[in-house]
């Protein structure tokens, strides 16, 4: 056992000396491996960061939350021309379903509307995400408050001119002054601020509660009516925990069909979009992004590996005379093999470490600049290190074998 340890130690020493004596060649070899490791780990870190951000943004919503509307979240077999004829969900349908559905936790009615500007005295904030929704929304999506509250059932049903502001909107309009009780203007109307949300951070889908404002949906219904093309209605449905989702969706569809007086042979003219299906779709997209990115990165990794193999063959050629002398003095084949194999592995490990360091520095920089948390996980570091060793072994094994099989007499004669 001690003999083998000494063999490994001496082989490692020879490999390190060879790398130190050929600095330029070592640097060029490191460059290829560094770029390869950087490409793969950067892709993995970026996709993992995106995945983590999406899951964080959706964590406040129950995955069984249903979006009942005329549009589908994903692809559908129904032709586009037919989907365009589907009617919007109505407020009276929301009231009917809320009062008749079994195993229902919460149900809310919401409009998807365009962005607007909020004005307070001489100041204003533009591009605000307006969320007209009924009071149950806070029970479906857990909003956290810095100050104030959400509007209650009475204010929601009457369409009271009250508003709840996101953190960034509040700071832009009021600075450090007290926002609760202040009046601002939206849609040409005066609203009273009753709540300010805690800071959430940037959202993956373009909208964040920080840049959103929540108002009672009935305010817009009174102002513009129910048949406004600029407003897309949706019914948010949150079933009770542990409910059979297939049975719940079937009951929901049947009750809405009955309310609309649809015939048995007619297809549903609405879509029951379950958030879990949307997250599964996102998971599929992220997996495809990860696979595509890795596939592209592998090519640059292969180039680095070929570069190391080429350098190792050159190194064997240059040191043929030395190999012959070592063998003539009693060096075993495995000593020569380990000597060159370690050289290739050390090259790749150092190159991989530099690549990982660059990814880490880049992740820290982008996190601070973009307000987006880039994550270099332990598993990605492990993958990068493992790949470096594997590439070192693969790139160095053939040159190492060819060096170990050299005839000592022929090696000395060739090197002279």
Automatic annotation (TrEMBL):
The chain crosses the membrane at residues 26-47, 294-314, 335-362, 374-398. It is a multi-pass membrane protein. Its main location: membrane. It comes from the Bacteria. GO terms for molecular function: transmembrane transporter activity. Keywords: Cell membrane, Membrane, Transmembrane, Transmembrane helix. InterPro entries: ABC3_permease_C (IPR003838), MacB_PCD (IPR025857), Macrolide_Exporter_MacB (IPR050250). Residues 26-254 form the MacB-like periplasmic core domain. One of its GO terms (cellular component) is plasma membrane. Pfam families: FtsX (PF02687), MacB_PCD (PF12704). It is found in: Cell membrane. The keyword Membrane applies. Residues 294-408 form the ABC3 transporter permease C-terminal domain. This is Putative ABC transport system permease protein. It comes from Flavobacterium xueshanense.
């Amino acid at each position: 056992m001690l003999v083998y340890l000494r063999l490994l130690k001496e082989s490692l020493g020879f490999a390190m000396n060879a790398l130190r004596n050929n600095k330029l060649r070592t640097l060029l070899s490191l460059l290829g491996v560094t770029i390869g490791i950087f490409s793969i780990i950067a892709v993995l870190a970026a996709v993992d960061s995106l995945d983590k951000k999406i899951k964080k943004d959706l964590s406040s919503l129950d995955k069984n939350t249903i979006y009942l509307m005329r549009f589908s979240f994903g692809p559908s077999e129904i032709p586009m021309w037919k989907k365009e004829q589907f009617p919007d969900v109505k407020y009276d349908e929301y009231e009917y379903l809320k009062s008749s559905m079994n195993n229902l936790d919460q149900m809310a009615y919401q409009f998807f509307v365009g962005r607007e500007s909020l004005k307070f005295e001489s100041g204003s904030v533009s591009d605000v995400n307006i969320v007209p929704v009924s009071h149950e929304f806070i029970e479906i999506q857990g909003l956290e408050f810095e100050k104030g509250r959400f509007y209650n059932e009475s204010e929601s049903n009457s369409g009271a001119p009250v508003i709840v502001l996101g953190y960034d909107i509040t700071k832009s309009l009021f600075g450090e002054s007290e926002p609760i009780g202040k009046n601002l203007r939206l849609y040409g109307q005066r609203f009273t601020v009753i709540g300010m949300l805690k800071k959430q951070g940037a959202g993956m889908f373009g909208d964040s509660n920080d840049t959103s404002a929540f108002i009672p949906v009935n305010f817009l219904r009174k102002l513009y009516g129910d048949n406004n093309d600029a407003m897309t209605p949706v019914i948010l449905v949150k079933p009770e925990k542990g409910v059979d989702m297939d049975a719940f969706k079937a009951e929901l569809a049947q009750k809405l069909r009955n309310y609309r007086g649809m015939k048995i042979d007619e297809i549903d003219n609405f879509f029951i979009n379950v958030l879990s299906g949307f997250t599964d779709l996102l998971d599929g997209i992220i997996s495809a992004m990860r696979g595509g990115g890795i596939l592209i990165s592998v090519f640059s990794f292969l180039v680095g590996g070929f570069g190391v193999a080429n350098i190792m063959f050159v190194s064997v050629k240059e040191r043929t005379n030395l190999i012959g002398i070592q063998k003539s003095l009693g060096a075993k084949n495995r000593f020569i093999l380990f000597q060159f194999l370690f050289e290739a592995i050390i090259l790749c490990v150092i190159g991989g470490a530099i690549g990982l360091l660059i990814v880490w520095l880049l992740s820290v920089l982008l996190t601070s600049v973009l307000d987006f948390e880039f994550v270099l996980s332990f598993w990605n570091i492990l993958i990068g290190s493992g790949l470096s060793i594997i590439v070192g072994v693969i790139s160095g094994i053939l040159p190492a074998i060819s060096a170990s099989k050299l005839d000592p007499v022929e090696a000395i004669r060739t090197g002279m």
